[in-house]
Design brief:
The protein is built from eleven helices and ten strands. It is an alpha+beta fold. The structure holds tetrahydrodeoxyuridine. Tetrahydrodeoxyuridine (THU) binds next to helix 9. The site of tetrahydrodeoxyuridine has 15 residues, from helix 9.
Length: 281
């Protein structure tokens, strides 16, 4: 293969969730037809010889602009959104991204997020002022609130990030402070804390704050979330958060912890059986 061919080639590893092979083939065929019909290029799916649930999604772009248009295409995004619900996607080669990096092209967050998305099913799984009172610390580490950082060192750091985020909880009404830290597929950790409201009903949980922050920063693929509260019993995400986490994060690994100990690890699928999501629309 010549280097110019290679520069217009994208290859992604697709690990399909057991039981979803037929769904995957339907989506892959729809994607292939769309790419061809809209003149973006050609798509093909190659099954791995040794892993029955593993496929290689190969895309031959007509040119870099076609790849960019394809990533921004709402019809394509509908298909890929469904794909992410049933498969873990790992980009292996991304010729389109190299082409897109032309200096005159302003960075397109959405396209970048698209090419950086790497998982689906297995990925399916803040801050603010602290309330008044004894829990408020005088020397809160605000660095984690203001920055994103890489966290590839395992669960401990994700839990630590959630503990730090919890310090920023605004929980003046319940006094129940929660911290969450989501790990995006590229390793970025995004934190959140619960933020309460005088009308009570507008309160938002730590998990949703973290997820919405992550989404608004352009992240679209996630692997884990840590949730921390100061309780002996584990504090699992509420029903509303489970739904949001499922829709945007898939079968996330959920690490529960309190201030000094881990309190168990779960998969979101187990906490939200029979979920409603885009597949049903
Ligand atoms: N809360 C969370 O932030 N996450 C959870 O997983 C459970 C509950 C918050 C919402 C509210 O501010 C307080 O905890 C009490 O329900």
């Amino acid at each position: 293969m010549s280097s110019s061919d290679r520069s217009r080639l994208s290859v992604a590893l697709v690990d399909v969730a057991a039981g979803h092979e037929a769904d995957f083939k339907t989506l892959a065929a729809a994607f292939e037809a769309l790419m061809f019909r809209k003149g973006y290029g050609r798509a093909e799916i190659v099954q791995d010889e040794t892993h029955p649930l593993r496929y290689y999604a190969v895309r031959h772009w007509n040119d870099a602009a076609s790849a960019a248009r394809c990533h921004g295409d709402a019809d394509v995004q509908t298909i890929t959104g469904r794909l992410y619900l049933i498969a873990r996607i790992t980009h292996v080669i991304n010729g389109a991204r190299r082409q897109d990096a032309a200096p005159s092209t302003p960075p397109d967050r959405r396209v970048r997020a698209e090419v950086d998305r790497r998982s689906g099913l297995d990925r399916r799984l803040g801050q603010g002022e602290g309330p008044p009172g004894p829990e408020r610390r005088s020397s809160v580490d605000r660095r984690t609130a203001a920055r994103r950082f890489r966290d590839r060192d395992g669960p401990a750091n994700l839990v630590a990030a959630a503990r730090r985020a919890r310090e920023h909880a605004s929980a003046a009404f319940s006094r129940f402070k929660v911290g969450a830290a989501i790990e995006a597929e590229d390793g970025t950790v995004i934190t959140g804390c619960n933020i309460e409201n005088a009308t009570y009903g507008l309160t938002i949980c730590a998990e949703r704050v973290a997820m919405f922050k992550a989404l608004s920063d352009g992240h679209r693929a996630f692997s884990r979330i840590a949730i921390v509260a100061d309780t002996d019993e584990p504090t699992p995400p509420c029903g509303a958060c489970r739904q949001i986490l499922w829709e945007f994060g898939g079968n996330l690994e959920i690490l529960l912890a309190n201030l000094d100990a881990d309190k168990g690890t779960h998969r979101l699928k187990d906490l939200l059986p029979l979920p409603f999501d885009a597949r049903l629309l």
